[in-house]
Amino acid sequence: MSPITLLPFIVLIGAMFLMTRSAKKKQQAAAAMRDEMQPGTGVRTIGGMYATVKEIGDETVLLEVAPGVHAVYAKNAIGAVLDDAEYNRIVHGDTEEELPAVPDDASSLTEAAEAAEADAEDSKDAKIDLGKKDEAEDAAELKDGKDGKADGGADAK
Question: Edge to edge, what strands does the sheet with 69-74 contain?
Fold first, then answer.
């Protein structure tokens, strides 16, 4: 047999080797992530449920899905181990940054609206120059014969 006929088989075997190698790396990374779990750690299951780890067994994990509600899951069902800040942000809605304070009464809301209306009225009074000439300047140029045309030029339509 010639090497040219063997080339498709060699390429196919090489591709299979590379795919199994990347799959093994992903499995090892997932196993290392699951080994990081400790009681009290927040996790997300492969089904998308967020819970807190209570106990870890050889093949199973006891998760607290709500206060006082426990469920046993296989270790392979843990999709991600979350750090405390991310878990609290997702589950409890905790944010690290301060949210703007909401006023107790509506008077502060109307004051801001009145100030915005006053600013809008002031801006209406100001004339905006868009680079166009005034009508008076146009009339003066036409009167002087300066209509922007060259000598003997005429409008062609």
Answer: 69-74, 60-66, 50-56, 42-45, 78-82
**pLDDT tens-digit series, residues 37-70:** 889 889 999 999 999 999 998 889 999 999 999 9
Q: State how far the Cα of 116 lies from the Cα of 109, in Å rounded to an integer.
A: 11
Sign of CA dihedral 66, 59, 74, 84: positive
Q: How far apart are CA 91 and CA 77, in angstroms?
A: 19
> pTM of the entire structure?
0.47
Q: Is 120 exposed, middle or buried (0-12, 13-18, 19+ CB in 10 A)?
A: exposed
Rounded to the nearest 5°, which phi and psi values hold at 8?
Answer: -60, -35
